[in-house]
Amino acid sequence: MDNCLFCKIIAGEIPSAKVYEDDKLLAFKDINPQAPVHILIIPKEHFDSVNALDETSAPIVGDIMLLAKRLADEFHLEAGYRLITNIGENGGQTVKHLHFHLIGGVKLAEKMC
Ligand code: 5GP
Ligand code: ZN
After folding, report:
1. With 90 as the cut, is the pLDDT of residue 1 above it?
2. What CATH number is given for 5-104 in this structure?
3. Global pTM value
């Protein structure tokens, strides 16, 4: 999609520190990490957010969950981690391309908001 930052990262027009890529998914390090491990997992297909998903997109969400688990293992997050997706203005979403934050490597705050 035009003018989408993450679509530009997928297209290679903007550089990123990739940690995983296949034909459907990309994972790369967040430019402003909130913890020692902060990875963004995105589908290559553009969805604005969870709100743009429907029954036909359920498989890609499952693929994202399984990749999160694999990356958590690869980045030694055995002690735990957090998987977050922000939705809309009140949810704090700043990039309007569905993404999941995989955050860990430290004891995270108990308070979530
Ligand atoms: P949101 O606030 O939409 O849930 O998360 C967007 C995330 O994208 C933020 O954590 C922000 O640091 C990250 N981000 C914004 N621009 C870039 C970029 O150009 N490269 C990378 N790697 N991350 C970015
Ligand atoms: Zn996009």
Report:
1. no
2. 3.30.428.10
3. 0.98
